[in-house]
Amino acid sequence: MAKRLFLLHVGPQSVHVSAMTETLRLGGIAVPDAPDAVFAHAATEILRTHKQHGLKRKQVEGSWATVCRRARKAKADCFVSMPAFFDASPEQAALALDGLADFTVVLVVTSGFDVEPPDAWLRLAKDGRTHVLPAHLTDEQLAAQVARIALIEEEARLEKRLAMISKRRRQVNRTLAA
Question: pTM of this prediction?
Fold first, then answer.
């Protein structure tokens, strides 16, 4: 079974995800059902900035795991916006990606040409799985672009599967002809 997509938006600007859900749903993309506080705590947990936010570590511990668990329960491709992850170190980015082992992670960066995409994430993302979009997109435009990216990924997966089936068909036909 093919892995589902996890479209991770790492900013640098924040987006209004609730305004995007309808357009994302049209593209077959879900947003994990979790309170906004869980997403904020997840960013704090991964970036290890709990003291700066006046929190104790145990108050934020497990928040990112909760987001990942909710994404698995969604039974669809998922979109999560974590603009604070833009400034993550390579170790922090690797920690965030560890929780997404069940998914094919596609990185969406809305830095455009204003800011360089984060090197920590670029090194960890697989080739062809990073999409840098213009910085000044509206929420609806970003949702449409994310849906387009998901469809491109699905098309590539289906083309690869079709190539494998065609190859097997040729092998069977050669065996039967012999």
Answer: 0.84
